[in-house]
Design brief:
Blueprint (H helix, E strand, L loop, with lengths): L1 H24 L1 H5 L3 E4 L2 E5 L14 E5 L2 E4 L5 H11 L21 H10 L7 H8 L17 H4 L31 E7 L17 E5 L15 E5 L7 E2 L3 E2 L1
Parallel strand pairs: 5-8
Antiparallel strand pairs: 1-4, 2-3, 4-9, 5-6, 6-7
Length: about 250
Amino acid sequence: MNNLKSCSFLLVASAWLSLSCNVFKNPINQYKPIMVKIQGGSFLYGDFYDSTNTDAIPVHLVDVEDFKIAQFETTFDQYDFFAEREGFAKPHLSDSIRGTRAVVNITWDKALAFCQYYDMRLPTETEWEYAARSRGKNQVISGTTTLDSIYAFAVTVHENWSVPEPVGSKAPNDLGIYDMSGNVFEWVGQYYQFYSMPERKHSLDEDAVRIIRGGSFTERIQTNRTYWRTGTLRDVASPDIGFRCADD
């Protein structure tokens, strides 16, 4: 009986070691985004703070279903691995400083392609804001309700960076998600429209304007607010626009 137990233990241990070795040998795992599960709910969406951002009013109630979002903005290391495997050109930045800095110089379509490589997608705009505000709280900066605390949570123009910071350099929000204010703008998976407009019915493929969220290291406090919205063309590759992935 003891011999049988020993054999069973050895078989289980051998299988675990084999699985572990396969996981560690698979380079995709170390570059795949780390996801945070977000419980859905309802929240007042838009400029709850002072109603000065005309793109983010009127404030209105929205429902968000459960979803997942990346804990960190996508890095150069992650995107470069994807680009090499898929034959994409690597985004421009000096080789000596790429690494774990948030990737930039990425168009909307290339950001989406990266997420789809891992069977993910870009977040919807409501998902993005709900996560940035720690499940819809009145957080004007992701992680805090006060503008005075911005420098603990966001990399902004006031720190005089010429390139993005490594992801996770500042404190996370209440959900453990980093850099949803500051560091780099983030593409979301929808076209741009005013809240007061009826929803447009044509497809994403027919509309060239996309939404970026979260502010960046080139922006002042105002633009780094959680509800702030900016539209830009989908084929723009900017030195302060990156992205993070989402999933159902």
